[in-house]
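Re: the 450-residue chain
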Amino acid sequence: MKSTSMDEIVSLSKRRGFVFQSSEIYGGLAGFYDYGPLGVELINNLKNSWWRAMVKDHDNIFGIDGAIIQNPQLWEASGHLAGFTDPMVEDVLTHKRYRADHLAGVDTTDLKELKSLLKDKRSPDGNQLSEPRYFNMMMRTWVGPVEDDAAIAYLRPETAGAMFINYLNVKETMRAKLPFGIAQIGKAFRNEISPRDFIFRVRELEQMEMQYFIKPDSQEEAYESWRQFAWRFLTTELGIKESSLSWHEHDANEKAHYAKAAVDIYFKFPQGPKELWGTHNRTDYDLSSHMKSSGKDLSYLDETNGERFVPYVIESSVGVGRMLLAVLCDAYCEESVNQETRTVLKLKPVLAPYKLAVSPLLKNKPELVAFAKKLYAELKQEFGMVMWDDNGNIGKRYRRQDEIGTPFCVTIDFQSLTDQSVTLRDRDTTKQERIAAGQLISTIKEGLKR
């Protein structure tokens, strides 16, 4: 099986309404994308699956929705104002800026090492480069009518901050005992020097994160548990092939300043294996930093032994856009059917934007259309996302539904008028079978479980 290229995914995404370039009619804006009708349905299905597995299936994990703009002191306490940086170089003639580590082809942020590696390197335009320096990726704004230093605020670079500063609120309102978690799905903003690889590295992103507050002596057990949760979710809930995934443990040079241990699940994207889902042992860094900065007591009293301590945190973090890209890449398939090549998205049915499509064999036959419309209304009431498709011949309709990942197609023909049966066609196998219209709902329900 040939590897899926990024061009194929970009073309499919635009052609079928998954992802559009933001502000396209004005030439676009690098690092920003809009999700189309099918993209937003697929994203909602991904988020719903994560929320169910992370929050609804756990008695001790609680959801919040924190504000995008917080008090700037939060970002000072968390270290983002000082340390949320990427190494950057600049073309001395064009003044275009580039990620130094990307130009050097290495995974490091050490300026001395990058300076050495880039000593004889030229910019993509063939010009001399400046020395590497750090660039803070936080996006700045102002709160209030006056744009001065006193009004500076920041669009959040990650969703985790709101979970840490709401630790006490959640603990008290939910009467939570350790261990417990706080989960959130929300937007974050990073002023990336060189956004690239379609929706993999962008400036506006959406994250699904959970911070799990624990006793320090349970850190290793909790870390391993959430590490395995991520792998299990990707393979079981989303149906991503295990051969597409791999583990990447962070070494001392890769780990964030707050992390005692960190591991990523890498996915084989078209541009190579890259990080998809991270699990981190953040120790007590975050709560301790906010205690010091705010003066609020964020320690925890263990009522069983009277011990007071600052909880450790295990973080589970994944980007929605990267998850969407991974699912599209993993599901994308080109195969030969009846000596023709068909493009099919073999999405897990629960994730598919549309669960089924309903078609009258001929759209100019009122009796077929009436039968199909009645059945369409019943199926739509039962399954929600059902597409009406009467455009083109039946073969083209099947190919169109294959390409957007619709698991089943239902066709109404002249036999349907005499015996109340329909043709049910399976996306993955292309098998077609006659089935009584009255059995259709139960049959499709069973098929959607796979």
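The two ends are 23 Å apart (CA to CA).
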